[in-house]
Amino acid sequence: MSLRDLSIDDIEALALGAWILGTGGGGNPYLPLLNMRALYQKGHRIQLMDAADLDDDDWVGTVANMGAPLVGQERLIDSLTLARAVSVMEKHIGKRFAALMSMEIGGANGVRPLMAAAHLGRPIVDSDTMARAYPELQMTSVAIGGLAPCPVSIVDVRGFESIVHKVPTWKWAERVARKVCTEYGASAATCQPPRTGAEVKQWGIHGTVTKAMTIGTAVREAQRKHDDPIAAILSVEPGKLLFRGKVIDVQRRAAEGWLRGVVRFDGFDDWRGSQMSINFQNEWIVSFRDGAPLAMTPDLICVLNSDSGEAVGSETIRYGQRVTVIALPPPDIFLSPKGLEHVGPRAFGYDLDFRSVFSA
Fold first, then answer.
1. Mean pLDDT of 29-56
2. What domain count does the chain have?
3. Does 187 reside within a domain?
4. Which residues contact 63 (CB under 8 A, 6 or more apart)?
């Protein structure tokens, strides 16, 4: 097995890149990053491994926070709580996880598995199940692959512990787990259905931790050199520039364990005289330019601070911010007919046929 030791600089880059891949959701990684700095100061270390190095009969724990990102800024999930979600699952299934991985590489959920791994002494797999962030449990590669939707462990900082032991479908797993999370206060640590090494190798989306670190490193280097950080992102990812402008209105509400709303922009530079709006459900889902659909899930819509290149989340975006909107291509599994059933615009209630900005 080939294990790579992650430095704190690697984790700083991971947090920055994961925030960009979060497409507005997944939670702001700043607080998990502070946790990782403190854990490294105490001597904890994280190792990264390739999915190919897993044995087929290994067990892998998939870690994520669930809830509305805005609530997560106030009800903080600490590293011990995340580790407890994993331990509760191990006790429930009677198996020890050989490694942990992210459910979604996007935002804070790209860093949180490392917080659990620091206490449990497990490596992190260089894979996840979204290659970004999505708001619901069925919006994953493993759900598209038809893998088991349960059990799911759900814990919070007050000591509450729940197991969704058996449900018939992924949508039922989402409904039941979301209801528990909402009762907990719209924020909880979870360990998703356990996966075998064989399942991770077949259905995981691989190299996403490294991808986030590569994006983050490019932005940090551009910041250091006072270069254009947006251009730096587009130099390491085959993305597309969609819009530059200023935030003129934000409407959002926390409801049923999600953050929903719409944000509107006035255009600058080549987009002067034009307007963009983006509808979100934790993540940026569908964007419109001058009333016409422009970019939509599963294409990644990334709203970035025009000066720093760092991501702006649905819970942190505010009036007056100057932003650049880019699109990044999704993994192929989400572009399949079954993938679009799970994560296309109709999966979010929009009467739109998916059309990629990369096919224009």
1. 97
2. 2
3. yes
4. 82, 85, 86, 100, 101, 102, 103, 109, 112, 113, 116, 189, 190, 191, 192
